[in-house]
Structure prediction request, 266 residues.
Amino acid sequence: MPELPDVEVYRRRIDPDALHREIASAAFGGTDLRQPIPEKLLRERLPGHSFTGTHRHGKFLFARLGDDGWLLLHFGMTGEILLLEHDDPEPKHTRLELRFEDAGRLAYTNMRKLGRVDLVDDPERFLEEEELGPDPIGDAMDGGRLRTRFAGARGTLKAALTDQQRIAGIGNIYADEILLEAGMNPRLPAQELSQSAVDRLAEAMREVLDAAIDADVDPDRMPEGFMIAERRDGGRCPRCGSELVKTKISGRSTYYCPHHQPEPVS
DNA sequence: CCTATAGCCTGACGGC
DNA sequence: TGCCGTCAGGCTATAG
Prediction:
């Protein structure tokens, strides 16, 4: 489930519990991610060091190793961070496991090969090189800013929202959630939003992402109006009970409410 | 230049 | 119960 809110929750697992604990060893799962994990380098650089801070930008998580760079984690569609006690069983699909001197453990698991574990010297430079857009909650993201990020977008609103180079962190699920909150149809041409609509969208973005983080991305604790639990055939709008429309937009499954998010007129 | 579409991987689920 | 097709929250290489 790793979109921005999920990654933020992972960050908040590391922050209170895994900082300033000396890493004793690094172990690997055997099979590689599509982009190979630099095992040799990680074995050299992690043991004897501690994480001294974390940073998240969009769907990327960085854990600082003092002055010796940062561990970079990306989760693809199925990655997770788990903090474990010394006697907890090994989670499935563990790709990287750090054992701390005090015997606790941190695991990065990923069922599929879509994901990334790496070392970088400087997150800011990394993000520039990737040409990633601003983070919608970390950076001031008001309507004006959002409008400049949408400049030149000729496709649908949904495509623009999930384009990581425009805004970093929104994926398929939360794009749909934000569009319901904003009352906008995913197929609206991104260019055709009025400034007041862009203002509303920026507001919806922040509200939805903050609420999901506050709920710890626990489906049972998500706010009332969220459609995430209704993402299935026959699912209904949590606000009006209309049957959700399921369709495909730029190759991704998309759900929307025909009442709250009427078709663009063209 | 831009956008849309396959394809990467693995597991879960529904239909027969 | 078992097999098979379909689909899944990300991203990237390629086609148009």
